[in-house]
TrEMBL record, chain A:
Xref: NCBIfam families: PA_CoA_Oxy3 (TIGR02158)
InterPro entries assigned: Aromatic_CoA_ox/epox (IPR052703), Ferritin-like (IPR012347), Ferritin-like_SF (IPR009078), PaaA_PaaC (IPR007814), PaaC (IPR011882)
Designated name of the protein: Ring-1,2-phenylacetyl-CoA epoxidase subunit PaaC
A Gene Ontology term for the protein's cellular component: cytosol
GO biological process, one term: phenylacetate catabolic process
UniProtKB/TrEMBL annotation, chain B:
Residue ranges occupied by any PaaD zinc beta ribbon domain in the UniProt entry: 123-169
A Pfam family annotated for this UniProt entry: FeS_assembly_P
Annotated MIP18 family-like domain residues: 11-75
Name of this chain's protein: Ring-1,2-phenylacetyl-CoA epoxidase subunit PaaD
Organism encoding this protein: Sediminibacterium ginsengisoli
Length: 250, 171
């Protein structure tokens, strides 16, 4: 049985790794070179953050656990990432909108975590927050540009909003281990996360001339290891080498 | 004993000044400000040396290479008990880059980070800091992409000499 703290660290790490992996699928396929570079830079930041969380989790777990064994040798049911991070990229608009939703969540979460009473967790959050601030700026600018752009870009953003909205609630509804950690580590501001997220999303969607969906239904399960069919395919690709050639290094 | 320790620290620091960033080879790791501390725990024949470094970005792929290079130069100088520790807090900032480092960057064709930090907030479409073209010194430049060839740089273009260039962005 993993302690709430280890579950929480894996939750943070898995979110960053899976979204980082999804973004990396754009490498060489971005609509223009500069934005291809941007989305893969964001990947690099996210995978870096995932490494920091995995290293910390590994040191807490002990028993020769490493950041690599956590990333490459766990199966679907052990991953705790939010479902929204594992959804397929869709078109550029959907990738951008997902990044904006998730970066905004990370921004407020890390802002709260950087003042928590766990020194290492606070240090990782402080470091990551600087990077996530850039991600929020970049993704919100693109949401506005596409939403308030041409008829086609607007329509695509409406479709993306339809596809993603029901996956946003999961980020903001705390699991049992998040509740325990919020209390144990005195994470101030965890209660007001949803409120802050909603305010920022509303502000940007309005500027993008996009409606704020009213649907309250949330698709959930990722935090407890119940995933969509998409995660298995991500792991099959990401973990192939370590599964086929255990312990290989290059 | 105190004097001997200081001598060792000085020697180690001088060695660290020969280690270059693998992605921006004109800068040393001390120019970048990523060496946070040098600890020498005693002055026996083979002292314990601990070098504390901090990454510029969480995913900076250069950190592993830098750690290895530090180990190599110290080993070559005869030090044996070497420990390299990575810390994340306080988080690295471009303010820690040395003046010499900024000059070297500019001479290399990369615009150094503006000395007055623009406030890092998540708001969209902020006014960009005035970035000087490293080629013709014009401030009439424009942002092409907030993300450049490495995590620490943005891509700019000069409106006067038309030259595209990297900007080591404020962080």
């Amino acid at each position: 049985m993993l302690s709430p703290k280890i579950k929480y660290l894996l939750y943070l790490a898995d979110n960053a790794l899976i979204l980082g992996h999804r973004n990396s699928e754009w490498c060489g396929h971005g609509p223009i070179l500069e934005q291809d570079i941007a989305v893969t830079n964001i990947s690099l930041d996210l995978v870096g953050q995932a490494r920091n969380f995995y290293q910390y989790a590994a040191s807490e777990i002990g028993n020769n656990t490493t950041e690599d064994s956590l990333a490459y040798l766990r199966d679907v049911r052990e991953f705790k990432n939010c479902l929204i991070t594992e959804l397929p990229n869709g078109d550029w608009g959907q990738t951008i909108l997902r990044q904006f939703f998730f970066s905004t969540y990370q921004y407020f979460l890390y802002t709260a975590l950087k003042d928590c009473n766990d020194e290492q967790l606070a240090a990782i959050a402080e470091k990551s927050l600087k990077e996530v601030t850039y991600h929020v700026r970049w993704s919100s600018e693109w949401v506005i540009r596409l939403g308030d752009g041409t008829a086609e870009s607007h329509q695509r953003m409406l479709t993306a909003l339809d596809n993603l909205w029901n996956y946003t609630g999961e980020m903001l509804i705390p699991s049992a281990y998040e509740k325990e950690i919020n209390e144990a580590l005195a994470i101030k501001g965890a209660d007001s996360l949803a409120e802050k997220w909603n305010r920022k999303i509303k502000e940007v969607l309005e500027e993008a001339t996009l409606p704020v969906p009213q649907s309250a239904w949330s698709q959930q399960g990722g935090k407890e290891g119940m995933h969509t069919e998409h995660l298995g395919y991500i792991l099959a690709e990401m973990q192939f080498l370590q599964r086929a050639y255990p312990g290989v290094e290059w | 004993m105190q004097v001997a320790e200081n001598d060792i620290v000085r020697k180690v620091r001088a060695l660290l000044e020969t280690v270059c960033d693998p992605e921006i080879p004109v800068l040393t790791i001390t120019d970048l400000g990523i060496v946070r501390a040098v600890h020498v725990t005693d002055d026996k024949e083979s002292p314990d040396i601990e070098i504390v470094i901090t990454p510029t970005y969480s995913g900076c792929p250069a950190m592993d290479v830098i750690s290895m290079q530090i180990r190599m130069v110290l080993l070559e100088a005869g030090f044996k008990n070497i420990k390299i520790t990575q810390v994340l807090s306080p988080a690295w900032t471009t303010d820690w880059m040395s003046e010499a480092g900024r000059q070297k960057l500019k001479a290399y064709g990369i615009a150094p980070p503006a000395s007055t930090q623009s406030v890092c907030t998540p708001d969209a479409f902020q006014a960009e800091e005035a970035v000087q073209c490293p080629q013709c010194n014009s401030y009439n430049t424009k942002l092409i992409s907030r993300f450049g060839s490495t995590a620490c740089k943005s891509l700019y273009q000069c409106n006067d000499c038309k030259e595209p260039f990297d900007y080591f962005k404020c962080h």
